[in-house]
Amino acid sequence: MKIGDYVTRKSYNNDIIFKIINIDNDIYYLKGVSVRLCADSNIDDLVLCDIKRDIEENRAFLDKIKDHKLERGDYFYLPGKILHLDGDKDYLEKCLKYYEDINIMAMGVVLNEKEMPDKIYDLLNTYNPNILVITGHDAYYKKKGGINNLDAYKNSKNFIDTVKNARKYENSHQKLIIIAGACQSDYEDLIKAGANFASSPKRINIHALDPAIVASRMSMSDINTEINLKDIIENTKYGSAGIGGIITKGTMYRGYPR
């Protein structure tokens, strides 16, 4: 096996398809193709996999989430503007492609999760978005403590501090909608910090596009109408186990004539 190969892990019933991104001292470093997860393994636990499996498994999901374009008719629409911060370049590119496919204005910035708290204020001042996505990589380590112990998470504290600093820029949950977190993130503390939506209520892994799906729905929801919270969350890959949030109004203006 070599860098660039696609593999699954026997010990996890071959549930997630990974790409080998590095090999060091017989340790294989892996990144999920569609799931925001990094892992490492020895070669005995790995099985080569055809990337076509991932494509087939995601086809129905991708068709569903892309079938959300606006019906133009006699009106014109001004969807909310998105600023998407991501700790992973590959996942960011997937999300930006998704925004582009459904005609939403989104700016993407690759930023190490540790840098996000210090840089968020200037980024918000520069881009002035309606919707902010804060995501990348995270993990919950049971051996380090319970789910309420921030020290047991890889990046939840960085995400929480970023949300708090974003709320210093704009305190209103309506004027700035925040979607924060990644795989297994501390959902409750992200919501308490000021996020409108966060992962992960059941501390599960989430799909690479899940934060972008929520952001796009908020972008294309009417500014005068409360969102259908359950409907938006159930449109993500793993539903309420992966992402939760609060009822908010949308960010999109509608005008006439077109």
Descriptive report:
The chain has two domains: 6-52; 59-255, Rossmann fold (3-Layer(aba) Sandwich). The chain is 30% helix and 21% strand. It has seven helices and 13 strands. The chain has helices spanning 51-66, 89-101, 116-127, 156-169, 187-193, 210-219, 229-234, and strands at 6-9, 18-24, 27-32, 38-41, 46-48, 76-78, 82-86, 106-110, 131-135, 177-180, 197-198, 244-245, 253-255. Strands 8-7-9-10-11-12 form a six-stranded mixed sheet, sandwiched between helices. Strands 4-3-2-1-5 form a five-stranded antiparallel sheet, with no helix packed on it. Strands 6-13 form a two-stranded antiparallel ribbon.
Features:
alpha/beta; 6-stranded mixed sheet; 5-stranded antiparallel sheet; 30% helix; 258 residues; Rossmann fold; 7 helices; globular; 13 strands
Question: Would you summarize the structure shown here?
Answer:
The mean pLDDT is 93. This protein has helices spanning 51-66, 89-101, 116-127, 156-169, 187-193, 210-219, 229-234; strands at residues 6-9, 18-24, 27-32, 38-41, 46-48, 76-78, 82-86, 106-110, 131-135, 177-180, 197-198, 244-245, 253-255.
